[in-house]
Write a structure and sequence with these properties.
This protein is of the alpha/beta class and about 260 residues long. The chain is about 45% helix and about 15% strand. It is built from eight helices and nine strands. A seven-stranded parallel sheet has the order 3-2-1-4-5-6-9, sandwiched between helices. A two-stranded parallel sheet has the order 7-8. Helix 1 packs parallel to helix 2, helix 1 crosses helix 8 and helix 6 crosses helix 7. It is globular, with a radius of gyration of 18 Å. It comes from Cohnella phaseoli. It holds the Pfam family adh_short_C2. InterPro entries: KR_dom, NAD(P)-bd_dom_sf, Sc_DH/Rdtase_CS, SDR_fam.
Length: about 260
Amino acid sequence: MDFQGKVVIVTGGAKGIGLGAARKFAQGGASVAIVSRSGTADAAELLRDETGNKNVIGIAADVSKGDQAREMVRQTAEVFGSVDILVNSAGVQRYGTVVDTEEDVWDEVMDTNVKGMYLTSKYVIPEMRKRGGGAIVNVSSVQAYVALAGSAAYVTSKGAINSLTRAMALDHASEGIRVNCVCPGSIDTPMLRWAAELFKGDQTQEDVIDSSWGRMHPIGRVGTMEECGELIAFLCSDKAGFITGGDYKIDGGLLTSAAVVLPK
């Protein structure tokens, strides 16, 4: 896909799905700002070396903080001229029911996963108006539709992302700004591997990812961050010009299957 002349911000872009998306934009010739709390310089250098695109920078910022989100957008616009595309991929996963989730943990999840999207969008949209439009993709999860036990804060945050996406799409459609979200199943990212390590028991991390979690998906495996990057890039491209307010599953068929299995 061709993104020549486009300026892209990817939050959570130093690893995982965000890095997969940033790679696609860099390959397409976009000017890319990789935003994360840490690791941005290394990620930017990696993509510059991989793609030959020298217009990739790293900006260290906590997008759940208003002043840092605003300054990150200002820096991007100062370096590249404006902003055309925003990918909100910053996120954390924490486990617990509402009873055993501490208030500060709840706030951490909601601030990072939801408030961060609100803040980056708040400061990016005025830049998009200057360009006559733009595209935003929020990274949600299949857990916006179904709940994993013991994940109350995370599940709540992902449901909120889907609702925020619809609200933003409606509010800004007349300005030429499209807003969609992607809802991945199990994707091989550092976050997934952290969870696999946490719950592996007597298994290896690879067994949990490939055998246990992979088999839950009818397609027979977990997804890759590159596959998520492809979908995100398409939704931000001119080819998706009539698409807004949508939520798109990329889950290997995970949500097609009922929990009840008929006896053979």
